[in-house]
Design goal:
Layout (H helix, E strand, L loop, with lengths): L6 E5 L5 E6 L4 E5 L3 E4 L3 E6 L10 H12 L7 E6 L5 E5 L5 E7 L6 E4 L4 E5 L3 E6 L3 H6 L5 E6 L3 E7 L2 E13 L4 E4 L4 E6 L3 H6 L5 E14 L3 H8 L3 H7 L3 H6 L1
Length: 254
């Protein structure tokens, strides 16, 4: 299904939202609860599927919804459609401070891999599914990297990142990252989780026991403040536990 061609505007600086402009009969899909405001003439409906496969039966949609539940997201997606006669606007934001990243999937070869809570909204026709990491090590110790989201289509998709976003292009290179700081990457990039260093560094370094490793050629997007770190910083015990870094259990909980 060809994606709808939507216009947009990113608003704000450190706490951003995206305002999407819809022509009559155009639709944008979004995570449940992401809408901030919408103009008169726009209607919305919660649906099991993303709408990319209109001929899919009930059980197909139910299976897709169940897969989404594995990522911690709602089994429903909200479809916002302009039922008016002129252009109408609807805006979306994530539930924590950060940056909205607009990505043209057509320029990505039609596919993008996103962290499990990174998807915000997209043009109707975008397929949102899950992707299990093929690496056993990532599944066992990589927390954030075991279950990822896969976005497929030829239109615009919007991804949310905490804090500041850094875009890097890897040219047959390797980049080691805090496991929670990955936002998205092209499917040609290989993802794994590896030990962070020597035993001394792992126990006393305060960076956790494992780091994510991205290898290959393609673009990757990183975030400076994943929600895990934000929650930890706000916790009365989080800051001290991170500074001490002397507990192996603490490394697993990071």
């Amino acid at each position: 299904m060809k994606s709808h061609e939507i216009d947009y505007k990113i608003m704000g600086e450190s706490i951003q939202l995206v305002e999407v402009e819809l022509d009559p009969s155009e639709t944008v899909i979004a995570e449940a609860g992401a809408m901030v405001y919408m103009e008169d003439g726009i209607t919305y409906e919660a649906k099991l599927g993303d709408g990319s496969e209109p001929n899919a039966g009930f059980f197909g949609k139910l299976l897709s919804a169940g897969a989404r539940a594995l990522t911690g997201e709602s089994i429903f997606m909200t479809h916002f459609t302009n039922q008016g006669y002129g252009k109408r606007k609807v805006a979306f934001a994530a539930p924590y401070p950060g940056t909205v990243l607009p990505i043209d999937l057509n320029k990505m070869g039609g596919t993008l891999i996103v962290q499990k809570d990174g998807f915000l909204c997209a043009a109707m026709g975008t397929k949102v599914s899950i992707q299990f990491n093929r690496k056993l090590g990532a599944g066992l110790v990589g927390g954030e990297g075991f279950i990822l989201q896969r976005l497929e289509g030829d239109g615009l998709a919007f991804v949310h990142a905490g804090g500041t976003v850094v875009e890097r292009y890897l040219n047959n290179e390797t980049l080691r990252i805090d496991t929670g700081c990955i936002v998205a990457f092209e499917p040609a990039i290989d993802f794994d989780v590896e030990a962070s260093g020597s035993l001394k560094s792992m126990v006393f370094g305060g960076e956790g026991l494992f780091l994510a490793t991205l290898r290959g050629t393609g673009r990757v997007w990183l975030q400076s403040m994943p929600i895990r770190k934000l929650v930890q910083a706000l916790s009365p015990y989080g800051r001290n536990s991170r500074k001490e870094g002397s507990s192996i259990l603490g490394g697993f909980l990071e």
